[in-house]
Amino acid sequence: MAQVISVHSFRGGTGKSNTTANLAASTALRGKRVGIVDTDIQSPGIHVLFGLDEAKLTRSLNDYLWGRCRIGETAYDVTPPPVATAGGKMFLIPSSLRPGEIARILKEGYDIKLLSKGFRELIDHLQLDCLFIDTHPGLNEETLLSIAISDTLVLLLRPDKQDFQGTAVTVEVARKLKVNRMLLVANKVLPEVDAASLRRDIETAYRVPVAAVLPLTEDMVRLGSDGVFSLINPTHPLSALYRSLAATVTETAVE
C-alpha cells in the first residue's frame, strides 16, 4: 500500500520544497519508487531542484487539470545516479511556470476533485511506494484536500512568531480533517539554539510530535536550490538528518 505524504507550511519561506525534495530523495535511496507532485500551482518551483528546464517541459499538472492529458503523461523520471544504483526511482509531476497558465488558474480555477483522482492514478500507473505532495503555503481548497487524503502530514515551521501562530491554525484544521498522522519539523533553526529545548516547547504548544529540528546551514544557503542537497552532499550532517527524518515520516528503520 503506497503512502501519501503531504509537506506543508502555513507561510512561505520555510524551506518546504527543499525539504520535500530531500525527503523524497532519501526515501528513494532506500530502493523505493517515489513520486513528487508540485501542487503549489500559484508559485511552482520544485522542478528547479531537479534541474528540469521549464522551456522543455511538454506537460505539467496544469495540463491534466484542464483535461489535456492523463496525469501519467505529466510525470518526468528524475532518478539521479545514486538513487538508480540503490534500486530506487523518482518521478516528478511539475506545475507550469508559464505566466499565462498561472493567470488562468488564478482566474478560472479547476475541478479540485481531479487532484485526488490523479493522485490515485499516479500511484497505480507508476507503481509508487510513496507519493510526496509539495503543497501551496497557507490554507486553500487544494491544500485542504491534500491534507485530508494524506497518510502523514508533515508541517514545517521556523522559530518565528508568525510561523508559530499560523502553524497553530493549521494543526487545528488538520485535527478537524482527522488526519491520520501529523508531524512537525522545525526548519532553519540557528545553530546556537538549543534543539532539545525548542523541540520540547513546540511539542508542548501543539501536542504534536516534532520529527526533526533542522539547522540553518551556510552550505544549504550557498547551494541556492541548485540541486537536492542530500544527493550533492551525502556525508553532510544535514543530509543525515534528512535521512533520519525520511525514515520517521515513512515509518522505516534507518540502516
TrEMBL record:
According to the entry, every stretch annotated as the CobQ/CobB/MinD/ParA nucleotide binding domain falls at 5-227
Which SUPFAM superfamilies has this protein been placed in? P-loop containing nucleoside triphosphate hydrolases
- What superkingdom heads the lineage? Bacteria
Instruction: Give start-end of the signal peptide.
Output: none
A Pfam family recorded for this sequence: CbiA
Q: Which InterPro entries match?
A: CobQ/CobB/MinD/ParA_Nub-bd_dom (IPR002586), DNA_Partitioning_ATPase (IPR050678), P-loop_NTPase (IPR027417)
By its UniProt entry, which PANTHER family does this protein fall under? P-LOOP CONTAINING NUCLEOSIDE TRIPHOSPHATE HYDROLASE, PARA FAMILY PROTEIN CT_582
Task: Give the protein's recorded name.
Answer: MinD/ParA family protein
Give the classification, highest ranks.
Bacteria, Pseudomonadati, Planctomycetota, Planctomycetia, Gemmatales
